[in-house]
Every structure is written in C-alpha cells, then in structure tokens.
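Please check this protein record:
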Amino acid sequence: MKLVVVTAGLTQPSSTRLLADRLAEAAVRRLAGHEPDVRVIELRELAGDVANAFVTGFPNARLRAELDAVTEADGLVAVTPIFSGSYSGLFKSFFDVLDNTALAGKPVLVAATGGTARHSLALEHALRPLFAYLRAVVVPTAVYAAAEDWGGGQDAFTDGLGERVERAAGELADLLLHRAPAAAEPVREVVPFEEQLAALRPKR
C-alpha cells in the first residue's frame, strides 16, 4: 500500500510540513498490519521544476518521478498553507501539471495551515472543490490548523486539533482498507414490450 503526502510549506521548519507529518503518522497507526509505504513530496523543493513544466509543457525527470508517485499512490494526504483565503499558488500549480485523471477515485485527505482560524473555510470553499473536480474521493473531515492550535509549540498541538487529525486519518484508513472496484452493472434480459403488456393483463 502506497501513501503519498504532498506538503506545500514554504519555510523550514514549516507548520504545514509538521501537520502533514502528524496526519501521515496517524494514518499509519490506523493502518497497522498493512505497513504502508509513505512518501513525502516537499513542493518547496520542486518550485522551479513546476514553473518550467508550465513553460515547456513537459515535466523534467525529478518532477515526473513525483507526479508518477502521486498517480500510483493508493491514497493521498495534501496539505497547503492558506494565503489570501485560498491554497498557495505552488500547491495549485503542482496539481495543474498532474494528469487530470491521476486522482480519479483516489482517497484524499485535505488539510491546511494558517495564521488565524478565520481562514478555515478555505478547506470547504477551495480545497474540497479542487479535488472534487479532479474526481478524487475526499474524506469527510478536513483538518485546519491555526497558529493557536499549536498549543505546545511546534512539537505539540491542542486536543481539538489532535482529535481532528485522528478522525480524518481514520476516515482515510477506512477508505484505503475497504475500497473495492465498482461492481459491474448486471446484464439484464431485454423483454419485448408485447410480453411485458401481456404479463400485466388479468388472467381469465
């Protein structure tokens, strides 16, 4: 099982990366016994590659490897900082260069960080619609972490954030463990209209 974490934090250390790590750790705990292979993609390190892909129309080898990892993943954790009430430009650009069928049917946990809780609705107004457009299966619980949620500093967070992390990770794990191919439509016998009509007539 492959779990890919995409984080768009711009600083180092980054609260966005920290939240991404906590979500991945919680998901791995929920997937105990299945030993998921976790891969973290730091978009900060790919900024130039993403820009070049827009200009040339082709991703270079390093970016192609990360795009392939997302495409081949069984599940995705996507975390972005919130700027001006929406996801970062780098975050959006990465998913713009991804093939638009790569996330179809794939379970995705979305999360974001910001300086104030006032921007938490960006998860529902920006991130969820983006991944719905890409036909991903977004888990019900989205996780937002404001500055005040890191109650114990960069190494700990408040109980409220911890509960949201665990709930969202559990939902992602459930999708990964129970997802099954869509059942094929049953083949139905075509009954001529005359026979259908005759069946409705009262018998004498």
